[in-house]
Amino acid sequence: MFNSRWPLLGDPCDDPHVFFLETVESSRGNLIVSTYARSSPRGLPTCFFSGNYSADQISKVRVLSPATKLIQIDRSECCDVVQAGDSNITEVKYRTCKVDEIIG
User: Fold this and answer.
1) Residues paired with residue 27 on neighbouring β-strands, in sequence order
2) Which of 36, 46, 57, 69, by CA, is between 20 and 30 Å from 75?
3) Which of the four pLDDT bands, split at 50, 70 and 90, describes residue 59?
4) Where are the domains of the chain?
5) What angle do CA 73, 77, 81 make, to 5 degrees?
């Protein structure tokens, strides 16, 4: 794995959470589901910087994306990030951006 943020400084707000690709599957609704698993716990305290949500409890990230590539050049893809209930799995759902949606 290439990490351009090396060396790690031990700062819980700056050091990355590392996940590796685990599976890629087709799903109903013409979706591709990619699942990423945490490599290991970071061993750092939780980042309490204002406005941040801790990713410390997340062990898997499931990414749902359209199986067909968007052909329109003037449109970007946006996403919604949701936690799957009380579980330690987070879902990222890619979708077409809405008309006046700001990409930041």
Assistant:
1) 31
2) 36
3) very high
4) 19-42+53-95
5) 175
